[in-house]
Amino acid sequence: MTTSWLVTGARGLLGQDVLAELAVDPDAAVTGLSRDQLDITDPAAVRVAVTGHRVVVNCAAWTDVDGAERSEAAATAVNGTGVRHLARACSDNGALLLHVSTDYVFPGDARSPYPEDAPTGPVNAYGRSKLAGERAVTELLPRTGYIVRTAWLYGAHGPNFVTTMLELAARRETLDVVADQHGQPTWSRALARQLAALGRAALAGRAPAGIYHGTAAGHTTWCGLARETFRLSGLDPERLRPVGSEKFPRPATRPAFGVLGHGNWLRAGVAPLPSWDDQLTAALKAPAFAALAAAARAGELTS
């Protein structure tokens, strides 16, 4: 039996991978709407878009962390109020909602992975705006709402840290990279597979509603991620120099420890995501990353 899926934010880094993942599912009829096609802050437009769909995957979001610090109301309009519109429309139409959130809802002061039910406490405007969206899903969809927190997302379809490191490698001999923030680099294609698996488990009645942590196993620092990216790309990791966060002051405070636990996947019968380094190894074989690595190696040879 064919199931109708709606993917919002469909032209973003994650949205494009979710569409690609669902495209190979013969039982999924998929509608993808970009920000230009659906403004989730417009409740009437959201109601029309959700009607007729059984599963909604919300990849639409304000993702500019520093911009949110300067314009918190605008960020909350998307990440909070917009998500509330989606949750209400899903409630009215009997649809499941898979909403993508963030590790930034936590303060980052833990010393062990945050479980799904750990107390929240965002330290920046972006985290507060995303927490508002989580609360809307929990309130309006207690039995059919799924919150999937992710972190340090990278992929082939948009700006991200891995792409930036490879681009800079082609132009600079050495790079300073932050080494005092800890997180879980997560490949957008792997997260897309996880979202699709969670949606299918929810449709089958196997996955309880609630919070799931969609991040890679293990953890590293930004410098650790950069060094592994260089090593796997045939570049010299010693070109990277570890520095403290104070070297790069930003408008928004970043949590120092954004490592998440993955206990709830067992309840859904879905395996947690693989380790961050295994994901990175697979991701760097994609043509977009391979081309950047080749250009960076060429620059290294001629420098």
Automatic annotation (TrEMBL):
A single BP term in Gene Ontology: dTDP-rhamnose biosynthetic process
GO MF: dTDP-4-dehydrorhamnose reductase activity
Gene3D superfamilies: NAD(P)-binding Rossmann-like Domain, UDP-galactose 4-epimerase, domain 1
Origin superkingdom: Bacteria
Pathway(s) it belongs to: Carbohydrate biosynthesis; dTDP-L-rhamnose biosynthesis
Enzyme class: oxidoreductase
Enzyme Commission code: 1.1.1.133
InterPro entries membership: dTDP_dehydrorham_reduct, NAD(P)-bd_dom_sf, RmlD-like-bd
Domain RmlD-like substrate binding: 6-285
GO cellular component: cytosol
UniProt keyword terms in alphabetical order: NADP, Oxidoreductase
Function: Catalyzes the reduction of dTDP-6-deoxy-L-lyxo-4-hexulose to yield dTDP-L-rhamnose.
Cited NCBIfam families: rmlD
Family the UniProt entry places it in: Belongs to the dTDP-4-dehydrorhamnose reductase family.
Protein name according to UniProt: dTDP-4-dehydrorhamnose reductase
Organism: Streptomyces colonosanans
